[in-house]
Amino acid sequence: MTRPQVTHRTLVAFPGVPAIRIWSYDKLLRARSLPRATWIFTDMDRLSPWELELAAHVYRELRSHGQRVLNDPARVCHRHALLKRLKSAGINRFDVWRIDESESVDRWPVFLRTESAHRGPLTGLIEDAGQLRLEIEKAVNAGYPERDLMVVEYCAEPVHGNLFRKLATFRVGDRLVPTLAVHDNQWAAKYGQLGVAGTELYREELAGLAENRYADALNQAFEIGHVEYGRADFALVSGAPQIYEINTNPTIGRVLEHPDPVRVESGRLWEGNFVAALVAIDTPSGAPTRIKDRILAKQRRRDFWMTRSRWVV
Cα separation of 261 and 206, whole Å? Predict the structure, then answer.
């Protein structure tokens, strides 16, 4: 169910990157021993509650043997809880609601989205309670589970005209690494449009990669979300960062060609900074960790007999 092999596949091409191996949770939860390494747990919002609990046991087993492990599956905040906490902390000014709280929505406009998937908004901007009820019904009829739906207050601001910019910063261990922005002519700036920003904004982006201007708010957000590896996506509204999500399994991209050479320079700077952060958390090889946790052992036995039963049938 998790996709780090897709989101991180370009990372192996970065010059100087440490050796990286990608494990599925299926493989991880069935392993009797694990190599000595720096382990990063990602994409936990796609796990079932039981898988999440098992992953948390693996995390604790590794930690108890002195291995370096980032992102505790038992503590990392999922989207709704994170956004609620960021609003309570005064970092975000916008609110979110569960579907069963939709009657109490009192700030407009809003939009509908899923909590676990990274697909962006399901709707355009919704202006009133009647329209919200219709959109919720439409989403459920389309097959989106009610428990995964959430209402989000709109909070965005164009850089100028109809041009919107989404900023992003990675946390890798103790380091914050700003990455490239997304520029788009619509408020839900997810993938961006080539060349719409112009040289002035690209030069501003390049300066921002070196200065790490919003480190204080972002450090606080990562700590609130208990995320030690991930990417915070945010935008500036009235000059203050508004954090939309922290993704523990973000897509790692490269900019090797672009109409504006400043953008290519920014891509090289971001790659170098990101690789340096990965090198800083790298772990020398050593003796593997034997997994002795009784709950994990019991699950392995259960998986074995279930697999055996399928072959017998």
Answer: 11
Residue 243: CB atoms within 10 Å: 25
DSSP secondary structure string for all residues of 107-142:
SSSEEEEESSS----SSS-B-SHHHHHHHHHHHHHT
pLDDT tens for each residue of 255-266: 888 889 999 999
The first and second tokens of residue 222, run together, are 């990562």
Q: Where along the chain do the CATH 3.30.470 domains lie?
A: 164-280
For domain 164-280, which architecture applies? 2-Layer Sandwich (3.30)
Q: Tell me, yes or no, if the pTM score tops 0.70.
A: yes
- Give the containing element (helix H, strand E) for 287: none
Sign of CA dihedral 272, 276, 279, 281: negative
Question: Residue written as tokens 């953008």?
Answer: 263
Domain 95-153 CATH class label:
alpha beta
Give residue 113's pLDDT: 97
Per-residue pLDDT of 131-187, as tens digits, reads: 999 999 999 999 999 999 999 999 999 998 899 999 999 999 999 999 999 999 988
Q: For the chain, where do the domains classified as CATH 3.30.1490 start and end?
A: 95-153
Strand pairing class (68-70; 110-114) = unpaired
Judging by DSSP bridges, how do beta strands 149-153 and 96-98 pair with one another?
antiparallel
Identify the DSSP state of 160. B
Give the H or E element holding residue 71: none
